[in-house]
UniProtKB/TrEMBL annotation:
Database matches in Pfam families: DsrE
Domain of life: Bacteria
InterPro entries associated with the record: DsrEFH-like (IPR027396), Sulphur_relay_DsrE/F-like (IPR003787)
Native species: Ectothiorhodospira mobilis
Protein name: Uncharacterized protein
Amino acid sequence: MSSHDMEQDDAEQTVLLVMTSGPDTPARCGTPFYLGSVLAAMDARVHIFFTMAGVQLMRRGVAEELRAMEGGKRVIEFIRDAKRAGVILHVCDPALPGYGIDPQTDLIEEVDHVGRASDLGDLLLQADKVLSF
């Protein structure tokens, strides 16, 4: 396969990253945003859906203080890079109460959608590729 063929195969594909990791596993909290940025730059439509402990990363103040590696970039910087690249961020509404998160007041401005499990199901069925972290 030529590099041109590979470029054509990647064009307009939809990639879904399901983020279940949260601040208790900081080493897992930078890569999904970095990978999402790379894939968006390769013309893929990229969604990240936060559920389980992952929703905590979307709470104001958490990503601003969290670093994936000691001395590394703050997770909020990875999030903002991903947003600039065109990554769409979804948060699982049913997971929020378990972490005491109010979707009206507690989420960072980078969140695009607050959705239900059925929204995740739709994204899963429409995605060409699915990865989980």
